[in-house]
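We include the pair:
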Amino acid sequence: MDGQTFYGTILVVDDEAKVVLFINGVFTPRGYQVLTASSGDEALKLIDELYDEINLVLLDLRMPGMDGVEVLKAIKKKHPQLPVGILTAYEERKSECMQNGADFFIAKPYSLRDLHDRVEEIVKKKGKPKEEAVEIKPGYIPVAKVLIVDDEKEICDELKTTLESSVEAALGEYKVEVAYDGQEGLKKAREFEPDIMIVDIKMPHLRGDKLISILEAEGPRPKDYIILTAIDAEEEKRNFRRAGYAYVSKPFTLTKFLEDLRVLCFKNDLIKKL
């Protein structure tokens, strides 16, 4: 992009040419690549072809062919970690969109500031893998509020006991809450406002990826997540790592888990001096 900083790729799905031109004119000079699709079918084909390159989808609801919510469902079913923002004049459909995994909802007409802030927030947080080196400062320890959401009670209880043990044994100082399904996890997250969430994916009532999408859209937003799951599909792993989340496969060792959590705390400045 002629030496300009590149921030990410946005796919705009809208059949109104003036909307597409407006978004292109706003974001291209700011370092984004803008792809376009005028229908849901066209958008889904582009996503399948260019998934690794797309950081965010901006989706209208009323288009020829597939309804926007149906497109949203199709995206989230196949690529649950791909962020999707809704831009529409139908404000009454906000709840429906959020329940189906939208990362944010902006009603038309909207301000340039609102749109730019939401796009920047999503792309910077979810569009870049968090693989940069983390400085472990000597003389400091992790301090964090941790929420564990897993339908395997034994795992929740073991991790809670370990993290609430001595600072030396736990490699940090933690306050811990647990939840045994996704709905309880959502309720606890809103009450406890954790710094870091440890989330299983396959849970009753509300899947872990849906839980994360709701919190990212509506808050409170943890500073980071650890995906703790028995899912072994390579595409699932790639989705979570692409979103920047640590991924720990079951069965796991406590040593590896504690070290991953410690690194996340230092990365997010959740530390204090001894």
Summary: The radius of gyration is 20 Å. The longest strand covers residues 140-149. The chain has two domains: 8-126, 140-273. The chain has eleven helices and eleven strands.
